[in-house]
Amino acid sequence: MKIGVIYFSKTGNTKAIAESMAKGLNLEATPLSAFAAFDEAYDMIFLGGAFYFGALNKELVAFIGRLDKEKIKNICVFSTNNSAKDACKELKSQVEQKGIHVIDEHFHADGHFLGMKKGHPNEEEKEQAAQFAQNVISLYFPPEPPKTEEGKTSEEKKDEKADSSPLTSAFI
Ligand SMILES: Cc1cc2nc3c(=O)[nH]c(=O)nc-3n(C[C@H](O)[C@H](O)[C@H](O)COP(=O)(O)O)c2cc1C
Question: pLDDT over 70 for what percent of the chain?
């Protein structure tokens, strides 16, 4: 499974959340400025941004414009915000215009700006971000149940037993 965490951040708030998510997934977060290319298809990209002067950053918008829907199966958006205006909705809308699936689950945290919301995102929000990312991956890519010695899952073995039971045969 291929997962990525990509973000744009001017003052570090979205970066802090991106890094927490990546840590929760045992990955490195990639700032947009360092992102090179999609070497292979991704199952899930966590994509983060924020509002500046009422809009998403231009480089981030251009990056979304270049996304290839053949290379990205799902995107999960996240943002940090200093006001009530949440950039997740705008991110989702821009990505969907590219025909790429954006999952319903999204994450946003407060971000400090000009002395407002000092200390945010805080440790609790960072921990929530890590947990959120893990939950998204477990939800969309649940782990395969362990196989038995014959290479079958316990569910498959149960089904086999049921198929050969006299009760099942009586109904056939
Ligand atoms: C230059 C600048 C302009 C901003 N303009 C807005 C804005 O128009 N509306 C808004 O809700 N927040 C605005 N903010 C607040 C940011 O969206 C918020 O602080 C966000 O967490 C910044 O993320 P970052 O630290 O990852 O860059 C602005 C912040 C900066 C630095």
Answer: 87
- Given the CA of residue 54, which atom of ligand 1 is nearest to it? 8
127: left (phi over 0), alpha (psi -120 to 50) or beta: alpha
At 157, which helix (H) or strand (E)? helix 154-164
| Separation of CA 80 and ligand 1 centre (Å) | 8
pLDDT tens-digit series, residues 69-113: 999 999 999 999 988 788 999 999 999 999 999 999 999 999 999
Write out the residue limits of the CATH 3.40.50.360 domain(s) in the chain: 3-141
CATH of domain 3-141: 3.40.50.360
Task: Specify which residues 14 forms β-bridges with.
Answer: none
pTM over 0.70: yes
For ligand 1, atom 1, name the residue with the nearest CA.
52
Give distance in angstroms: CA of 122 to centre of ligand 1. Answer: 17
